[in-house]
Amino acid sequence: MKINSLIAGICLFFSSLFSCQQKGDFKSVSVEDFSTLIANPEIQRLDVRTVAEYSESHIPKSININVLDKTFAEIADSTLQKDKPVALYCRSGKRSKKAAAILSEKGYVVYDLDKGFEEWKKAGKEIEE
Prior knowledge:
The protein is 46% helix and 13% strand. The chain is of the alpha/beta class. This is Rhodanese domain-containing protein.
């Protein structure tokens, strides 16, 4: 009985250790690389923050789909084009990685702004209010 508990504990440890790894097939990029990417008009710009956050300020020409919305994947599928890459961001980079994983698993080519909109603003990049 004790061996089974020990094995279960070890399995739980390793599963939690590896569950924090990046999921999905997408690339996280720096502010400079993101800026270069979105200069291409073929790249779709996606803000995955809340409507309130987006309303305060955002990267110009980006659309807003809240990744915390239960229907995020469905809204994204009906709004985005799969044949064009998606460059997405959130406030700090955490939610965007979740969104990037969802979209990349659905077949989109995805680029994630690694440290998010806060880093974008800190770098003095263009924003729209």
